[in-house]
Every structure is written in structure tokens, then in C-alpha cells.
Design brief:
Order of helices and strands: HEHEEHEEHH
Bound molecules: iron/sulfur cluster
Radius of gyration: 24 Å
Largest sheet: 3 strands, antiparallel
Strand content: 5-15%
CATH topology of one domain: Alpha-Beta Plaits
CATH class of one domain: Alpha Beta
Mean pLDDT: 78
CATH architecture of one domain: 2-Layer Sandwich
Shape: elongated
Number of strands: 5
Structural class: alpha+beta
Low-confidence stretches: 117-148
Length: 175
């Protein structure tokens, strides 16, 4: 009896429309709330590395020297924790799937230098006011862009963290 049922099902499926589609050529409408892939707004990233240290599958790499933010999408489980811990809120969950690929290569994003606060929009990078003095290496920290420094909201957030986590964030942000 069981074999008869199975045979009937198998035979019947030969004439039914398949449930699957020829992805990625054909796609299905995405359900609401789908966790597609992690997206980054690189202009807001301060390369603090919180996402890197917090990722449970170790798929994010933050390189402060090269100013790159890298994610291995085949390793990401879309848990969203990196989005929660990012102090600049520059990570989000894009509801679309990442493009299909047959090559296992991480996505690398170049993080631009933060513009100095108060710098005129039309000022060229090499333009210096006549009164500007060369900055000694020891004073270089004082010349860091304001956007790279934590704001009051961030400091309040750090205050809510446990001691170990707060120490890691402070060390990453140099505060
Ligand atoms: S969503 Fe989860 S697994 Fe994916 S990068 Fe973020 S923390 Fe890692
Ligand atoms: S936690 Fe946010 S700001 Fe820090 S490195 Fe990751 S994406 Fe950039």
C-alpha cells in the first residue's frame, strides 16, 4: 500500500508544475522580513572593529591599516548581531539576497577617510590655510576628524556595557 502511494505521488509529480524555480534567472517574491544580506554604509564606518570581534561566525574582517571592511557572505548566518553592536549604526540587513556566485570570494569595501569637521566642501585635500602649522606626531591625535571620535550618545552606550566589553570598545576607539 505504501509503495502504491509513493508510486502514485512520484508519477503525479511528473505532470505538476515544479515548486522550485531556476534561481538566479528566475526569482520568487521575497517574504516580508526576509534576512537577505548585511549591508554597510561605508561613509559612516569608523573602523572600530566591534562587528569583527562580535561576529559569531568570524566572517567580518576590519583592517584599519588598509581601511577595508570585508565580509565573507557564504559564512554569514544573517543573525544580525553585528548590526546591533555597531556604534555608528552603519550596518543594516538588506532584505534582498546577495547576488548568486560560483566563486567563494569575500566582499571587500574600502572605507573612505572621514572628512575633517568644519572643512569647506570645495576645499581641495592639499589646500591648507596660510596660518596652519605642521602637526607634530604627538599632536596628530588631536587632529583626528571629529567624526572618528565617539559622540555623547556613543559614550552613553559604552557606559551601559559590561566592563570587559566597554574596555574593548574604549581601546578600539582610543578613548
Ligand atoms: S549577521 Fe551575524 S554572522 Fe553575519 S556578519 Fe553579522 S554577526 Fe556575523
Ligand atoms: S562596528 Fe560599525 S563602525 Fe565599527 S567597524 Fe563595524 S561597521 Fe564599522
Amino acid at each position: 500500500m505504501g509503495a502504491f502511494k509513493l508510486g502514485k505521488m512520484t508519477f503525479g509529480s511528473l505532470f505538476k508544475k515544479p515548486e522550485t524555480v531556476l534561481y538566479p534567472v528566475v526569482t520568487k517574491p521575497q517574504p516580508a522580513g526576509l534576512k537577505g544580506h548585511v549591508a554597510i554604509e561605508v561613509n559612516d564606518c569608523i573602523l572600530c572593529g566591534m562587528c569583527d570581534r562580535s561576529c559569531s561566525t568570524d566572517c567580518i574582517t576590519v583592517d584599519r591599516q588598509a581601511r577595508t571592511w570585508t565580509i565573507d557572505r557564504l559564512q554569514c548566518v544573517q543573525c544580525g548581531y553585528c548590526i546591533t553592536v555597531c556604534p555608528k549604526k552603519c550596518l543594516s540587513m538588506d532584505p534582498n539576497y546577495a547576488p548568486a556566485t560560483i566563486v567563494h570570494e569575500p566582499d571587500v569595501f574600502q572605507v573612505p577617510e572621514q572628512e575633517k569637521a568644519g572643512k569647506k566642501a570645495d576645499e581641495k585635500p592639499d589646500d591648507k590655510p596660510a596660518t596652519e602649522k605642521p602637526v607634530a606626531a604627538a599632536d596628530a591625535k588631536a587632529e583626528e576628524p571629529d567624526e572618528a571620535k565617539p559622540d555623547a550618545q556613543l559614550m552613553a552606550l559604552i557606559g551601559l556595557m559590561d566592563d570587559e566589553k566597554a574596555a574593548k570598545v574604549r581601546s578600539a576607539l582610543n578613548v
